[in-house]
Amino acid sequence: MSSGLYLYGIFPDPIPETVTLQGLDSQLVYSQVIDGFTFLYSEAQQEKYLASRRNLISHEKVLEQAMHAGFRTLLPLRFGLVVKNWETVVTQLLQPYKAQLRELFQKLAGRREVSVKIFWDSKAELQAMMDSHQDLKQKRDQMEGKALSMEEVIQIGQLIESNLLSRKESIIQAFFDELKPLADEVIESDPMTEDMIYNAAFLIPWENESIFSQQVEAIDQKFDERLRIRYNNFTAPYTFAQIS
Predict the structure, then answer these.
(1) Which intervals of the chain form a coiled coil (predicted)?
(2) Which pLDDT value is given to residue 130?
């Protein structure tokens, strides 16, 4: 028995029935046009969906397959959105936000979201920094085995930290300076792990992705083997489709 409608995303164009998609709980995905907005949905089999890896992937796959089928402009809806009926969609989403949704469609037309996450090995970076700052290394070595005052401990700690921070910032600056000119918009988010030093999404013209990825590769090479880059070139534009 259906628990309502599970919504995946909103598109500006109707999606023909020849595009067959499978969603959560292996349900067929349908499209519903309301007031010029096309909603992708399936019959919800649960009132609430657990944000498991499998469910999240199923949700994203529906949107990515629609994009692969040529429906590139879309507003992805957050995972787990179950509504009772279309009346709820009209009153809670379309009536209050219709103008903003249309503006977002204009902003996203012909553009795609790509993301760059940069990781480094903090221990290796610390060692490399010490090797290149002999004065700091000597200072630290001299202190080893000595009983230090709290002030001395703090001072050497701060020196090491500020030098490490400037190494990190020079990497981030290199990526930002060379990638920003290729993007219409950039949104930086907090790093998600300790080894992640940069986390940003870029909104770029759809056909410029290969230029962008080559640039990511070229900057990475400048830093030899110091970094690990996770570059995602095909994703629904979650970061840039926010209703304020």
Answers:
(1) 126-153
(2) 79
